[in-house]
Amino acid sequence: MSESISQTGTMDDDMSAEQMQTILERQKQAYLADGVVSTKLRIDRLERAVNVLKNNQKELVEAMSADFGHRSEHQSIFTDIASAIGPIRHAQKHLAGWQKKQKRKVTPGILALLGAKAWVEYQPLGVVGVISPWNFPVNLTFTPLAGILAAGNRCMIKPSEYTPETSKAMAAAIAKEFDADEIAVITGGPETGANFSSLAFDHLLFTGATSVAKHVMRAAAANLVPVTLELGGKSPVVISRTAPMAATTDALMAGKMLNAGQICLAPDYVFVPSERMGEFVESSKKSVAKMYPTLVDNPDYTSIVNDRHFDRINKYVEAVSYTHLTLPTNREV
After folding, report:
1. What residues make up the domain containing 217?
2. Which residues are marked as active site?
3. Taking the model in full, what pTM does it have?
4. What's 159's domain CATH number?
5. pLDDT by residue (tens digit) across 125-177?
């Protein structure tokens, strides 16, 4: 790591906008100074990213558990370590093909007669910013890195302040394999995140809540930074009158219970034929019981990440319970 650049800020002492700007400038200067990014270097950077995950698996898993209060060790290894290595290996395997020029038809045709040729040639953008979320903090940091490094870019990462221990662990692990002018991790709270969004990256990736994305995109617009957003949403499930209920609820509840439902793919609501509602409820209970005979003190079940989200979910439960107790039935109406 370059001695003149600090890789991280801290949760108690957010990195200043000036410090982040310095890192960005150093990365941009290094990118321009190095010129064409060879295939060999891209593959090497991807391999080092794999090394970060493999060599620091224990520390990363423990950090995620600390941030969540408890997080299933087996889940973390599967969803955040192994599942992040997959996209990196995929990038290594297909990198040569992605770098090939793609021929295009020359128009108007008269230009072809004059010897003109046309093709698409993909080139690095430069420095890419990544704002990653808390629910799968390692996976959703390293999966974007697969494309970023394969394309020959450098990267600055701002992980979520909701998972500070994981952010610190990632910063330390990445610093072992990468110089700060290749990849820099910026830890800190909301103010750091706001300043990070305002940097003049060559591209910015954000994964998280729609409400936060509006602020991120507004900040990026000031520098005309192109933005890629992966936002939250609803995941409805429609069950038909002829659907095999046991298999349906097994799949549905596996998605809902993974990471205690803290995943954008978790089914949020289900459309069930009224005559099958009782069957659906009983089958769902059986599906959950097969996976988790108990949820309390179960090492394979993950906790809600913080008090704010825990209280929010409890309010939903209370609201539903109150509705069931007080609203009249259709017959009473």
Report:
1. 17-95+123-231
2. 230, 264
3. 0.86
4. 3.40.605.10
5. 999 999 999 999 999 999 999 999 999 999 999 999 999 999 999 999 999 99
